[in-house]
Amino acid sequence: MGVKKKKEMQVAVLTICHQDLETLKSFADVEGKNLASLLLRCVQLTDGVSQIHYVKQIVPLLEKVDENGVCDPTIQSCLDILAGIYLSLSLKNPLKKVLASSLNSLPEFFLPEAVHRFTSRLQEELNTTDLYSYRKVIDNISSCMENFNLGRAGVNNLLKNVLHFLQKSLIEIVEENRKCAGNHIIQTQLMNDLLVGIRVSMMLVQKVQDFQGNLWKASNSPIWQNMCGLLSIFTKFLSDDDLLQTVQSTSGLAIILFIKTMFHPSEKIPHLISSVLLHSVDCTSVPEWFMSSCRSLCCGNVSGSAVLFLCQGTLAMLDWQNGSMGRSREALLLDTAHVLFTLSSQIKEPTLEMFLSRIMASWTNSAIQVLESSSPSLRDSLNGNSSIVGRLLEYVYTHWEHPLDALRHQTKIMFKNLLQMHRLTVEGAVLVPDPFFVKLTESLLRLEWHIKGKYMCLGCLVECIGIEHILAIDKTIPSQILEVMGDQSLVPYASDLLETMFKNHKSHLKSQTAESSWIDQWHETWVSPLLFILCEGNLDQKSYVIDYYLPKLLSYSPESLQYMVKILQTSIDAKTGQEQSFPSLGSCNSRGALGALMACLRIARAHGHLQSATDTWENLVSGARIKQGLIHQHCQVRIDTLGLLCESNRSTEIVSMEEMQWIQFFITYNLNSQSPGVRQQICSLLKKLFCRIQESSQVLYKLEQNKSKHEPEKELTKQHPSVSLQQYKNFMSSICNSLFEALFPGSSYSTRFSALTILGSIAEVFHVPEGKCLIMLWEIIFFQNILILHFALFEVSVLLPFFEVLFLPCNSCLYIMKFASKGQKKLSPFSLIIICQPQSVIFMDYAYYGKSSSSYLPNLFVAVLR
Questions:
Q1: CB-hemisphere CA count at 13 Å for 229?
Q2: Who contacts 699 (Cβ-Cβ below 8 Å, separation ≥6)?
Q3: Distance separating the N- and C-terminal Cα atoms of the chain
Q4: pLDDT category, 823, cuts 50, 70, 90?
Q5: What are the pLDDT digits (tens) for 231-289?
Q6: Are 805 and 764 in contact (CB under 8 A)?
Q7: What's the pTM value of the predicted model, to 2 decimals?
Q8: Helices (DSSP H) in 484-615: which residue ranges?
Q9: What digits encode the pLDDT tens for the residues 548-578?
Q10: Are 217 and 224 in contact (CB under 8 A)?
Q11: 342 near 376, Cβ under 8 Å?
Q12: How many whole angstroms from its chain centre is CA 548?
């Protein structure tokens, strides 16, 4: 695999107007050492990356100038041009951030002049009247507020102008959107501009320091008037169904944020918002500015979606944790919950359902914040037995199998938060046996296991109270979950739940005792049911458990492999009459304990949980057991055993002598498999083995060539590289001899197919176009006999590619002599005579049944491939 080239950074080139360019030329000095010369060289470059280098030199150059340099016309003009450059760059151009970072380090005595120049340039931007340039100006306002001192100061100086521009731009963009009805491309762009404009308005309120005081709150203040104007616009957007729901929802956030910023005193904000959400606003008791800006929310018929987005703003924009809203925040929290419950029975539109689920999850987060800030009066209203929690649980149960993944995810967040809420309400008390948790656990366990939401809720419950309390109710839960793993649709949920459970259980047991005896209890709970399924479960159960659950278990607890091997070996011995313990595992007519053993070892080796193959054969399983698996009557046991020998997490792991002997043993007895799927798996696994041999032989070859005096790494090889290489050559030669011997006259189709496919894999893996290979194919394959084989016609497609790969790279010729009969449509079986020696010729004689091939010599077709 080639090395992936690092993607080069793309930076758009900065440019300036002709007037600024002439200004730089007029101020540039002859030596080219002043700021004007530096900027001139920068803007004349055609490479943005190189321009970054020059931009970074600006501040170091200014640091050499004394305070009198502030009055220098050259520096003043350059600061003005720099402000223009910053505002001309696009939001995503890296040069913009580099320039902002550099200007943040300006010497302090330059700041007043720099702020003045930047303010002037920003004012020019705000004066634009081109509607399709508004987005660029809005982006500049946004970037000025993001870690850019000069920009933030300029916005502060022009705050009323900025607010007025935002108000004007939002009105004009909406009007333009109506004019472009039907032009979806333009409308999409305008909607995006509108959304960004609302977000920038919110950013200003949150980040500009002027909003922290009260001077701007005078009714005749331009800033106050612009704020009221923006609030009125957001109120209209909230109820405008012609706008995207994202724009409406963001408007709901903005409305609550502006009310929070403008309304005084803050202790009365919760009551005002509650009255808006409950449609109970007393128009005589609210401020005039609020009535004029939000009249439709006070007196009109507010749609369900508008109320929903106001709930979202209430939960997202108010400070629930610091107690600044006083006791009334608790009433607002409860009122918001009841409004959401009402909306949940009314809303049917999928997108609004998604909004509702997110907002309800957000409500549970806010409730946790209030409870964590010591709010005793809420504990009775938010404990597990309260009506609110009951309604929330009902919502979870109703939507936990919703078709939308995102909505199901929100129900998980809600359920997890509900458990946390109850824990906070009973803080200081004994959680278990807590009646709410016990009742909840029992109700979940009574549900059928085919309900997918059950797995999610049990997983959250385990994380909250621990698995030991759930096992105390029903110890057979692990077995029950494993039983349903025959259903593919439930497998991911079941395996994730089991993983959560066994991890939690192990952590709990380790914390309870310093002794090692806890591991036996853990194995009995989680590993023994697994082994039972591997031995006695149906085919689907075994397959899914091996693919999904077993790797997770071994990854978390690699030391459990020895326990698995011990139990399964005992079961195997019991079946053979050597021992009588653990008789329930295994079956004579199925894969049984031996199949389970091989599957566990295969997964463990493939995921790197075995230190080395040699240690495995010496310490875990005997060679006799491996051979027993290689010739087992169940095909999957044979495949798993072969996979154990062929697969490894390290592609360069040395193939041991024992493994090579067992592979040879396997090939002797398994070429004649009648199942196409089994033949395919055998060929695939053997190809993996050949690739390991090829890659590990390269390492061995390099070690031999370097003639290193250092002792080879133990995990690589325990003998001299040349010895291992010779063993490889002998093994491959023996394999090829066995495969060619299997191509005897009268051999079955399955045998021939397997042998030829494996030979083709050998030719493919060890073939190097330059003719250089560490294990030369011609050192492996050498035979002299003429093989006379009988093939059906369609087998030519299997045979020809193999021999083309095998012989052509060695500059041999392949002659195909084909005799065709005029008018003959159906060909009979034919004789194929192959003379197989290095650099020899292959003759293929296609003879028709009952006729002599010599009678078709006039129609001879000869193809020569070189």
A1: 17
A2: 652, 716
A3: 29
A4: very low
A5: 999 999 999 999 999 999 999 999 999 999 998 888 889 999 999 999 988 888 888 99
A6: yes
A7: 0.81
A8: 491-512, 518-522, 528-536, 539-544, 550-556, 560-575, 592-606, 613-615
A9: 999 999 999 999 999 999 999 988 887 665 4
A10: yes
A11: no
A12: 18
Distance CA 181, CA 242 (A): 10
How far is 502 from 527, CA to CA, in rounded Å? 10
Q: How many CA atoms lie within 13 A of 849 on its CB side?
A: 9
Structure tokens given for 44? 């004349």
Burial of 709 (0-12, 13-18, 19+ CB in 10 A): exposed
- Per DSSP, 57 falls in state T
How far, in Å, CA of 404 to CA of 612, rounded? Answer: 46
616: DSSP letter: I
Element (H, E) at 844: strand 841-845
- Find tokens 């498999």 and name the residue: 673
The amino acid that residue 82 corresponds to is L
Distances (CA, A) of 671 to 289, 685, 741: 89, 13, 12
Helices (H) and strands (E) in the chain — how many of each? Answer: 42, 5
Number of Cβ atoms within 10 Å of the Cβ of 601: 27
Given a contact cutoff of 8 angstroms between Cβ atoms, the answer to whether 737 and 667 are in contact is: no
Structure tokens at 407: 């909505």
CA distances to 477, 520, 603 from 550, in Å: 17, 18, 8
Q: At 565, list the tokens.
A: 């091997």
- Residue 714: predicted pLDDT: 46
Please name the residues in contact with 416: beta carbons below 8 A apart, sequence gap of 6 or more.
460, 463, 464
pLDDT tens by residue, 320-333? 887 777 778 899 99
The structural domains of the chain, with segments of one domain joined by +, span 337-430
**Segment 85-104, tens digit of pLDDT:** 999 999 999 999 999 999 99
Residues in the chain: 866
